[in-house]
Amino acid sequence: MREGIATILRHAGIDVVASVDNAVDLVRAAEEHRPDVVITDIRMPPALEADGLDAVRKIRAVRPETAVIVLSQFLDSSYALDLVGDDPSGVGYLLKEKVASPQILTDAVERVVARDSALDPDVISALLGRKRPEDPLAALTPKEREVLALMAEGHSNTGISEKLFVSVAAVERHVTGIFMKLGLSQSASGQHRRVLAVLRYLGQ
């Protein structure tokens, strides 16, 4: 799979400066090559646990400008929330099955390098679908739920308007309604702050 990902990236005109098979070498390679983006599995040697996630934390602690995309075999929203931490900019989280599509992978790379976020739609759907005793999401209209999901994935208002084939002004109205109904601070209107606010809300 590692070789397949490298091939997809090269075909898209993206330079692959290193390819490693364990978390220790991943950190070393990032220190040596100082890449724009690191793509890693969550589970890697040596421990075959969340070594990849730990590695990107170490990498971003030294070079926070390094964008990261973490791949997971299983849909686990807690990993996504853990990865985002306090700053969703330059962060991507995709299910492995999605990277079979070159467009999805290269789009995620472009978004995180541009300091946006790229979170897997299935992960967001899982967060949206969680059962709660009193679910405030029930107050949202179907269109507002669509907009909320795309916000959480990291799309801008312009990006949402293009995906839903509505005007940017319509998206802005939906976003305002969502924040009001969910009691989220309007101070979180900045792109990264609003993604963080939505993810924190969904992860409660």
TrEMBL record:
The keyword Amino-acid biosynthesis does not apply. SMART domains: HTH_LUXR (SM00421), REC (SM00448). CDD domains: LuxR_C_like (cd06170), REC_NarL-like (cd17535). Signal peptide: none annotated. Pfam families: GerE, Response_reg. Keywords: DNA-binding, Phosphoprotein, Transcription, Transcription regulation. The modification 4-aspartylphosphate is found at residue 41. Residues 1-111 form the Response regulatory domain. Residues 133-204 form the HTH luxR-type domain. PROSITE patterns: HTH_LUXR_2, RESPONSE_REGULATORY. InterPro entries: CheY-like_superfamily, NreC/VraR/RcsB-like_REC, Sig_transdc_resp-reg_receiver, Tscrpt_reg_LuxR_C, WalR-like, WH-like_DNA-bd_sf. PANTHER family: TRANSCRIPTIONAL REGULATORY PROTEIN NARL-RELATED (PTHR43214:SF24), TWO-COMPONENT RESPONSE REGULATOR (PTHR43214). This is LuxR family transcriptional regulator.
